[in-house]
Amino acid sequence: MLVVNSFASSVTARNTVVVHRALARGHDVELVETNRRGHATRIAQDAARRGVDLVIAFGGDGTLNEVATGIAGTQTALGVLPGGSTNVFARTLGLPNDPVEAVRGLVRGLDASNLRPIGLGRVNGRYFCFHTGIGYDAAVVRQVERRASLKRWAGHPLFIGAALSTWARHYDRREPHFALEFDDGSTVDDGFFTIVLNTNPYTFLGNRPLDLSHDASLDRGLVCITFRTMSATAILSSLLGALRGGGMQPAPHLDERVDLTHFTVKSERPFPYQLDGDYLGEVSRLEFEHHPEAVRLLFPQNTAVH
User: Fold this and answer.
1) What's the CA gap between 2 and 189, in Å, rounded?
2) Which residues contact 287 (CB under 8 A, 6 or more apart)?
3) What is the pLDDT of residues 90-143, one digit of tens each?
4) Percentage of residues of the chain with pLDDT beyond 90
5) CATH of the domain at 175
6) Are residues 84 and 152 in the same domain?
7) I need a surface site. Which of 6, 151, 236, 266 has the fewest CB within 10 A?
8) pLDDT at site 129
9) pTM of the predicted model over 0.85
């Protein structure tokens, strides 16, 4: 099954036809279009119940997340084609950002049965493929989604503008927003924003990966990175280091935990969070789990696990 989000930034009628034809050479392919938020999850759940072998998400990272959530824990495998503005997960797998180019590698992987189980994160019952952002990160995504109609034409400038606007007017930079509790009994009581990684990089700025931690991998536990300050100097120094590659360097304002299977984020006042780039609202508690071998993933031919 090919699940298509025709509203995604890079999806067109033409490339949908090209992708469908490429996949249909030697395989029976059912094409289904999504028409509202959450629709892809229900489509994927129905496909899994019917015993469909593989569901490919053709859209942005949000479409991928919905499909993965629908089939996780079943025998149905997951595939991905880039159709959004950033396509973090697809590019992490080594796929080019052009879906017509990407489908060639995916078809080679499909013909070679290049399927392997991967781990997924889960928070408050919903799976995520590459990351969850809590606090400032999520507040930026909230601002972006208020101008979602512009994403097709001005993806990265829109994010930069939202980051600056959120910093200046839409996020409290004086008081910590939440605390984190880990299974070893340790805590972080002064979290301003946290990024929970299932893969690395965290995202891409143009063609440059934002490399936060090489310990984040599809076959390891979760990585949790918490910023304990909203100092512009501290944050920019860490992010600029991440852009140079090699991950963020240890610093007093950072708390990093790796290979996590479970932890909790909570606060007396609600805080925002986003999952694989989709803003999900405000909560006062998040329960994180890592689920190894949660889904079988179709890897493009001749690419490695990151």
Assistant:
1) 44
2) 123, 124, 262, 264
3) 999 999 999 999 999 999 999 999 999 999 999 999 999 999 999 999 999 998
4) 75
5) 2.60.200.40
6) no
7) 236
8) 97
9) yes
